[in-house]
Amino acid sequence: MIGNLQSSRRVNSPPEKAAASVVILGGGLTGISAAIHLKKPWVLFEREARLGGLAVTREKQGYYFDRTGHWLHLRDQGMKDLVGQVLPGQMVQVDRKARIFSQGVTTLYPFQANLYGLPPDVVKECLLGVIEAKLKAEIGAEPKNFEEYCLRHFGTGISKHFMIPYNERLWGVSPREITAAWCSRFVPLPNLEQVVAGAVGANAGALGYNATFSYPRQGGIGTFAAALAGRVDPTRVRTSVSLDSVDYQKRKVVVGGEATSYSALVSTLPLPELLKRMAGLPKAIEEHASRLRCTTLRYLDLATRSKPTADWHWVYVPEKRFPFYRVGIFSNAVDSMAPRGGGSFYVELADRGPVTETAIRESAQGLAEMGAIASAGDVLFAEPREIDYAYVVFDDHYYAATSAIFAFLESHGIYSRGRYGSWTYNAMEDSLLAGREVAATIDAIPEGAIP
Fold first, then answer.
1. Where in the chain is the domain with CATH 3.50.50.60?
2. What is the pLDDT of residues 141-180, one digit of tens each?
3. Taking Cα atoms as reference points, which of 424, 295, 423 lies closest to residue 352?
4. Cα dist. 277→48, 245, 246, 280, 431 in Å?
5. Whole-model pTM?
6. Is CATH 3.50.50.60 correct for 22-51+232-291+396-443?
7. Using CA atoms, how far apart are residues 44 and 174, in angstroms rounded to an integer?
8. Cα separation of 391 and 380, whole Å?
9. For the domain 98-199, what is the CATH code?
């Protein structure tokens, strides 16, 4: 993506290139998808030297690391067809192995439907809490925040032992600060029969939107992003250039010191980064922009000398005694992500501050305690990484702010799309679909009309 750079200040007017019908800012999955699907002329600008955005893969000593978990969950037939076309026969279908580690034991995901294996007193507390919550479900006002949502649907036990502590570690803020409106797709809601069945180990089938995923046989998710980018006309792509400014009134962008006019602008930058580069915004829009919140993610690319002792693809960790809240093992999904006999991990850290040697050491020890690796000494290397824009905070200001901002932008022919352009929480397929959707929207605008 192009974001995270300050606008350049220039005294002289920048030279202007020939106008493009559509300008695309950012060459992540949404920008690539928009370029693939657009029929009108377009030009795409990307800050990095190559396309892919966050869907890239690093390699070190034969170990491969995505930018944390980038598992491709496909449900749209058009996207399934596209993936099959760009990487024919090179994607593997994987049945999810997601786990929870708490109370010293590893249990199946989701926690709320798989209590079996937890200490009996914890199972009892969780079951009684669910029953009480179900009996009271029709009483009282609708939940005002995510904590109330958890208590309403899962009861006190499940909320206390997993839902509240885990989500506080994930989002970096109290669940009381987050609305409940975001979670309908991403938080499975088992019925009472499923909860009881899961408490005695009798649940059948996997719950949740991500029960299976697709993944490249070689090279990590970057292989998919590169193959997708291969469908884009390279003569219309400008890489290693950063956005300086957007003049929404004149419909002109300045990128790398050169101005380009547009009839429609597709921005996949993080929404605050786009707004920073737009001078003369109405005061109300500036006020809404100041209320946009998100959290930074710091994580480790971690390699082990020997094969992981755990068989899961990722695990959720709600307990604060561990420095991490989620860990994934790339090489358990596809062997080629690590040298033979080794393991490649991503380790998402709860602390939003700079990664310390203590955090790295405690992460290795925690992985050994969980049974994910043979011993802390099995770690070959662990490199700190970060994602500035990681999780959007769905607080009380979120919906009013984003509704007003998007209405303003689209009234000026600016379409902010993608996970961070739309300022939302979604999956990779959603970003691909967003590119397809915005292309159809722009192509439907009659030539010469002001969108």
1. 22-51+232-291+396-443
2. 788 899 999 999 999 999 999 999 999 999 999 999 998 8
3. 295
4. 18, 5, 6, 10, 23
5. 0.92
6. yes
7. 39
8. 29
9. 1.10.3110
